[in-house]
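Structure in, sequence out. Go:
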């Protein structure tokens, strides 16, 4: 991994990051790597916990672990103690490490739909995908933490290009707006949920965001209505869709056009196929395996079933339509909640919507929804308008049987909407 240090050394006095009121040069970053190396255990390969509280120090520790051929376990400092304990237990009891050559990286899924999965990467293989990153002069906001594949992708794309990470004081719309304005951020990667929060909080009206040239979105499906709002709010910015999984790392894709949700997989190291509307990927950076092996779909031939439902336009372009794990079974009928959400979001006055399953003693499950709106209407009025609107687009059994109006979107640590 000598290329890592050579690349970072070449950037010398460039600014690597702004964090907690300080500017760190690449020389400072290399010194943080040296300090982390001194504190690593010597001898045989060990699991080393990495504190994600200080992002740049955490990244330095990760790169030191790669060099020292240990196994990194990033754990956010704000994670509940019982969850940290459970992750440690899963990591230490696994027998998968005998398959690992070189350094390792343990990641856990967000667990939004099932129990979080622990997975083991060959860290060197994952890092090598950034070896040929071209020099850039971006100022990129770092929103996701480094215990998430999206957060790592943002950080490595930026640092191995000699660009600057801008790390906000807090991961809130207001703090992000302040960081963009003060540091002239030009690349803003975020989930659709967080972009929606940014608009609902009126951050573009409170702060000067004119420096933003690229809006990069991923981690969950983007509603078409929100994509149009972003294009209108940031008329000079390019909209870039990103895609990847914890199991494969980031996959290079290219949107057909800015305001389209269709994309083409444009990664020479990645193969793809669709089985029963589910996207399967084959890439060298696929995980070695799961720490709790009863979870996940890893084919013996190197394929991985992503769990993402996709639509193919027959010209090689794909659009994500939902998750296999989110499908609702209503009396034997399979319902994709994203299909219903795409209809409800077009109802006048609706700013955000979530469709979910609710237990029903007769059908097993029925469909419920919650909406965010700034309009003052009675619940009975909302229900009446919702049903009238849905009847035009949906079969009767797909129309939600209950509706709740909420004040704000709840998000998890991965910046996704809570399910």
């Amino acid at each position: 991994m000598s290329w890592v240090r050579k690349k970072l050394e070449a950037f010398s006095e460039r600014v690597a990051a702004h964090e907690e009121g300080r500017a760190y040069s690449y020389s400072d970053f290399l010194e943080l790597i040296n300090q982390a190396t001194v504190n690593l255990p010597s001898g045989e390969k060990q699991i080393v916990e990495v504190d994600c509280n200080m992002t740049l120090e955490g990244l330095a520790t990760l790169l030191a672990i790669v060099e020292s051929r240990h196994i990194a376990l990033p754990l956010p400092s704000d994670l509940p103690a019982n969850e940290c304990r459970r992750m440690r237990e899963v990591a230490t009891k696994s027998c998968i490490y005998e398959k690992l050559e070189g350094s390792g990286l343990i990641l856990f899924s967000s667990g939004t739909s099932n129990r979080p999965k622990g997975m083991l990467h060959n860290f060197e293989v994952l890092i090598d995908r950034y070896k040929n990153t071209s020099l850039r002069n971006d100022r990129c906001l770092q929103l996701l933490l480094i215990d998430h594949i999206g957060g790592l992708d943002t950080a490595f794309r930026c640092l191995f290009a000699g660009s600057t990470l801008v790390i906000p004081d807090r991961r809130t719309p207001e703090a992000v707006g302040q960081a963009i304005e003060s540091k002239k951020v030009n690349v803003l990667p975020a989930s659709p949920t967080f972009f929606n929060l940014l608009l609902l909080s009126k951050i573009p009206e409170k702060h000067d965001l004119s420096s933003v040239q690229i809006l990069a979105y991923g981690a969950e499906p983007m509603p078409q209505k929100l994509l149009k709002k972003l294009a209108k709010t940031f008329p000079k910015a390019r909209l870039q869709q990103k895609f990847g999984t914890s199991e494969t790392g980031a996959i290079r894709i290219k949107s057909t056009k800015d305001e389209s949700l269709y994309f083409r997989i444009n990664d020479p190291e990645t193969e793809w196929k669709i089985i029963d509307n589910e996207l399967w990927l084959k890439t060298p950076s696929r995980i070695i395996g799961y720490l709790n092996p009863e979870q996940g779909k890893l084919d013996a031939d190197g394929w991985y079933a992503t769990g993402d439902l996709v639509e193919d336009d027959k010209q090689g372009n794909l659009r994500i339509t939902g998750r296999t794990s989110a499908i609702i079974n209503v009396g034997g009928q399979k319902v994709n909640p994203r299909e219903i959400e795409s209809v409800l979001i077009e109802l006048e006055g609706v700013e955000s919507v979530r469709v979910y399953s609710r237990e029903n003693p007769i059908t097993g499950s029925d469909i419920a929804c919650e909406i965010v709106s700034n309009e003052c209407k009675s619940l009975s009025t909302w229900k009446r308008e919702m049903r009238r609107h849905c009847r035009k687009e949906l079969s009767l059994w797909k129309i939600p049987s209950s509706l709740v109006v909420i004040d704000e979107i709840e998000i998890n640590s991965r910046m996704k909407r809570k399910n």
